[in-house]
Amino acid sequence: LVKVTVRAYLNSTSTTKFGTNSRIFFGDGSEFVIPVTDAVIKPELGKNISVAEITVQHRYSQYGSYTITYIERDRSGNIVNIFNSADTPYVTAVSFTLSQDLQCNNLPVLAVFPLDKACSRVAFLHNPGAYDIDGDSISYEIAVPLAGLTELAVYTSPADPKYYTNFSQGNEDGTG
After folding, report:
1. pLDDT digits (tens, 9 = 90+) for 160-169
2. Are β-strands 130-131 and 109-110 bridged in parallel, bridged antiparallel, or unpaired?
3. In terms of DSSP H, where are the helices of the chain?
């Protein structure tokens, strides 16, 4: 039995509700439709921040490797390097192996709230503070954003020359 919790951090001034057109896919052909869920305003996290979450349990019929995928239809609009971003689903996935050798296994926990403010012309960094209480190894992979379970978003790399006034001299400091 696997317990999955999806926690959403939302702009409390937005009319978008958590669970609107959202699903969890368990990687074995089954899925869970997330019900529309009210968010709770959390002023201690910052201005206009609210949090909503859903927890669901799923029983796999056999041991093996699986990918749990969360998909929602409400990606932010005006993302410069994702074509039609407002209509491109947001996708997050975690892969794991369900082994009969394990009595109990916990998936990684992301300990750092994903509440960052990006600034134009400044490198954006976020460390999710992932840890695994079982001591399992954790790895990250930078990948082209997905628009579904297998469909890639129409995406242009941030390293594309079209984003630079002089690509051959561009640098993070903005002095090239």
Report:
1. 888 888 888 8
2. antiparallel
3. none
